[in-house]
Write a structure and sequence with these properties.
alpha+beta, Beta-lactamase, six-stranded antiparallel beta sheet, 32% helix
Length: 393
């Protein structure tokens, strides 16, 4: 792929980021991708290249957006944290105070903070739902309200891979009246000038880059954690981990379809370019304000990024660390957001990553369409992050 032309802007100080980005294409690790960096409020890297489809027939453009999977969860959390800042949501209140139907089946005392930190015990639904449920907000939230926790809430954590968005999003909706996607658009995306969508209007579908199947960068690179999760899912297809990723069954249809794109599935279907991720984290990395737009106050950023869950993840079957809506640096060197201990962010399945570092005042975004087989951070994203910090030395 040495003939791929990299387009965009890159400040001379960050030339190493461009070199690493180009090397991904030369090494056959990319079909199409974008990377962006905001440093102390200024965009210093905004690069893209390659192809927007697997057939390599349509070039990746400046306005190409892709499904960023679980990078969306941090945006969901930001909506909730804004309501906390405004005094409309209490972390230590029972979820049922805002969503009365949620209080059934042993969930009457489940706290809001447990939803945000993957401690609510609701990563999956036991009863197999119809295919269309994935795209039906009411059907999904009613099913979750009627579900019994898989473990005693608050006592352990497990990644709420897809349910997270409906759980936190329904609390936002009950308080504010707007859907999660609408709230995010009105209160965060539009004010910041983000091309970031949770529930994509049909008029934007032509801009969406096609994603490969998960693991397309090579199953020979499957890390042990991903292999372990795969074995758990295959050995117990009716179990919690399998159902977290495969119920409703339409999750297996993938994301390259209009139904997925237009629905609000806030745990997994945000659509954005790399610069959208970098800009929102760039705001958080410098105190919560950018270009006169307020996203979250410093107390909210500290609350978002304070550890609430650490250790064995009952769904992913690996050790994970979470704040209240973001991942925190993991113990593994290949699963950290740079060298800073205060950094935080969220990866998306297959490789997408958004993260911020208040110490370095860095906001970072990476969006590929050739998806890797890693559970936490993709080596391509780690290499780009390393290049960012090398450039700061």
């Amino acid at each position: 792929m040495s003939d791929v032309t990299i387009q965009g802007e890159c400040a001379p100080r960050f030339a190493r980021v461009r070199e690493v980005f180009e090397s991904g294409f030369r090494g056959g690790k990319e079909v199409g991708a974008a990377v962006a960096v905001v440093h102390d409020g200024e965009t210093v890297v905004d690069l893209w290249g390659g192809w927007a489809d697997m057939a390599r027939s349509a070039a990746w453009q400046r306005d190409t957006i892709v499904n960023v999977y679980s990078c969306t969860k941090a945006m969901v959390a930001l909506c909730a944290h804004q309501l906390i800042e405004r005094g409309r949501l209490d972390l230590d209140a029972p979820v049922a105070e805002y969503w009365p139907e949620f209080g059934q089946r042993g969930k009457r005392n489940v706290l809001v903070r447990w939803l945000l930190s993957h401690r609510a015990g609701l990563p999956a639904l036991r009863e197999t739902l119809p295919m269309e449920a994935l795209y039906d907000w009411t059907m999904m939230t009613e099913a979750l309200a009627a579900e019994e926790p898989w473990w005693e809430p608050g006592t352990a954590h497990g990644y709420h891979a897809v349910t997270y968005g409906w759980l936190v999003g329904e609390v936002v909706r009950r308080i504010d009246g707007r859907s999660l996607g609408t709230y995010f658009r009105d209160e965060i995306a539009r004010p910041l000038g983000l091309d970031f969508h949770i529930g994509l209007e049909d008029t934007h579908h032509h801009r969406v880059g096609e994603l490969s199947e998960l693991g397309a960068t090579g199953l020979d690179e499957l890390d042990p954690s991903a292999l372990g999760l795969m074995q758990v899912v295959m050995s117990d297809p009716e179990g919690m981990s399998a159902r977290a990723f495969m119920n409703p069954p339409s999750l297996a249809l993938g994301v390259n379809n209009p139904e997925w794109r237009r629905a609000e599935i806030p745990g997994a279907n945000g659509h954005a370019p790399a610069r959208g991720l970098a800009r929102v984290y760039g705001a958080l990395a410098r105190g919560g304000d950018l270009d006169g737009v307020h996203v979250l106050d410093p107390a909210g950023i500290a609350r978002l990024s304070t550890e609430h869950s650490c250790g064995q993840d009952l769904v992913l079957q690996v050790d994970t660390r979470f704040g209240l809506g973001v991942m925190l640096p993991q113990a593994r060197r290949d699963a950290r957001f740079g060298p800073g201990e205060r950094a935080f962010g969220h990866p998306g399945a297959g490789g997408a990553l958004g993260c911020g570092d208040p110490e370095a005042k860095i906001g970072f975004g990476y969006t590929p369409n050739l998806l890797g087989p890693h559970i936490l951070l993709d080596p391509r994203a780690v290499a780009l992050l390393d290049a960012v910090y090398t450039s700061l030395e």
